[in-house]
Amino acid sequence: MQTVSTFNFAGKKALVRVDFNVPLNERFEITDDTRIKATIPTIQKIIHDGGSVILMSHLGRPKDGPIEKYSLRHLVTPLSIVFGVKVKFAPDCIGEEAIRLASELKAGEILLLENLRFYKEEEKGDEAFAEKLSKLGDVWVNDAFGTAHRAHASTAVIGQFFSEKVAGFVMQAEIENAQKILEYAERPFTAIMGGSKISDKILIIENLLDRATDIIIGGGMAYTFFKAQGGKIGKSIHEDDRMPLALEILAKAKAKGVNIHLPVDNVVADDFSNTANTQTCASGEIPDGWEGLDVGEKSREQFAKVILASKTILWNGPMGVFEMENFQAGTKAIAVAVAEATQNGAFSLVGGGDSVSAVNQFGFNDKVSYVSTGGGAMLEYFEGKTLPGIAAIKG
């Protein structure tokens, strides 16, 4: 797979698929520009080579055509500041004006196209729409790993209309760091799986059973395991239909010599509220009317011990309802342990929205090896799936 680092963009118009699906407040101001700043190296490389840049992205989920709050016009000024170049804007992503503006671009100039999802054809992966987009550039650069799992017109289908296509630095970094987990993990390798549902993580867990030495399971999905083993879980979140699957995972892990670490104690509450009454219970012994909202102190200590002995760490999902101050100790303890293990030489990757939010909230984002912004795309990559956005670059 060719990347921007090995491609010369001199005299080329680069049509770059980015993920500028950023949060905006009621005044249309960007509240988190992480995704934009991540693309700076890719844009700078193209401009430094003597190329011009045509940016295309989606924003939000517009249902029926153009909607003002989802217009990428709101990003023009912030982008101009970030890139240090006055960004031009095309009020449509296809059509005569977009073609004219793209054709008039000079080396070093940047053009931003209007929201791709103002056309239903984008998400449908429409070939004719993809071909219209392809007319705007000489080379296609896919730097939107966060949408690589979608076979949309601009993220995958468009690739067939280019002889020259490359991965941007964001895409390259996401793939390379994921491969450090899936292909080149140094053992002991610990995967930390949290979140509320086994059904969301089953494919990842199954894929990791052939790779990891240890799997820590916390969050809401732990209670399905406890109930499946005959434990009492009160009114804790769980999936009755996934109990056979939980037992199957435990059996497979045992057969493969993988250590599954479940919480030994839990912080439970009589209501889903930060002001609820709380107590600590042994796992499988939660009273009726109470629900587990975090892992207990003994669990935190045991999990930290496993993490600190690891050489490779994948963290996906929180240990509890970390958004509430009284139930964030478990997730914070994981963050502390992962940061310490990283400082001691381990490779650590944090992926998945809630885990990323947690490391950012606790200030550990620069204390781990890599924080993936891929979200659903990274999860599917860890499930072992072929992502259309990556296949299109290679094809």
Notes on the structure:
With 395 residues, this protein is α/β, with parallel strands linked by helices. 50% of the residues are buried. Helix content is 35%, strand content 17%. Helix 11 runs parallel beside helix 12. The longest helix is centred in the C-terminal third of the chain and has 15 residues, at 329-343. It has 15 helices and 17 strands.
The level of helicity is: 25-40%
Q: Strand pairing plus helix content: what structural class?
A: alpha/beta
Specify Rg, calculated over alpha carbons.
Answer: 23 Å
Biggest β-sheet strands, sense, barrel: 6 strands, parallel
How many angstroms does the end-to-end distance come to? Answer: 9 Å
Draw up the topology in text.
Layout: E1 13-17, H1 34-38, H2 40-49, E2 52-56, H3 76-83, E3 87-90, H4 96-103, E4 110-113, H5 120-124, H6 127-134, E5 139-142, E6 165-167, H7 169-182, E7 189-193, H8 198-208, E8 214-217, H9 222-228, E9 232-233, H10 243-256, E10 259-261, E11 265-269, E12 278-282, E13 285-286, E14 291-295, H11 297-308, E15 312-316, H12 329-343, E16 347-350, H13 353-361, E17 370-371, H14 376-382, H15 388-394
Parallel strand pairs: 1-2, 1-5, 2-4, 3-4, 5-6, 7-8, 7-15, 8-10, 9-13, 15-16, 16-17
Antiparallel strand pairs: 11-12, 11-14
Helix pairs in contact: 9-10, 11-12
